[in-house]
Design a protein that fits this description.
The structure is a single chain. The chain is of the alpha+beta class. The protein has a single domain, classed as Nucleotidyltransferase, domain 5. The protein is 38% helix and 36% strand. A four-stranded mixed sheet has the order 3-2-1-4, with helices on one face. It starts with a strand and ends with a helix. The relative contact order is 0.20.
Amino acid sequence: MSAKLIVHTDGGSRGNPGPAAAGFVLDDSDGRRLAARAFFLGESTNNVAEYTALVRALQAAGKFGAGRVTVFSDSELLVRLSLIHISEPTRLLSISYAVFCLKKNTLLLPLYTQ
């Protein structure tokens, strides 16, 4: 049976770009804390910090055998990018926005492919 996990992520930079950090907490479906991590990223953008937090959280969730992960984020970009994987015609505007952001910021492309 695969685990159902809950992730809360955040990332940010002081200045854009500027000194950046990312982090996440990972809980099981009963609210037990499985992991909490923070990462200093050096000089980076806010969007890269937000996306790095998500990628590292999902990597950690995979190590705990996650079959389903619910992600909470305050990042508009992350929420919109997640819509790319939802095939609903009503989401085309959001998908177009997300793809535009990826093409505009090549720093996000390596994180997106992970």
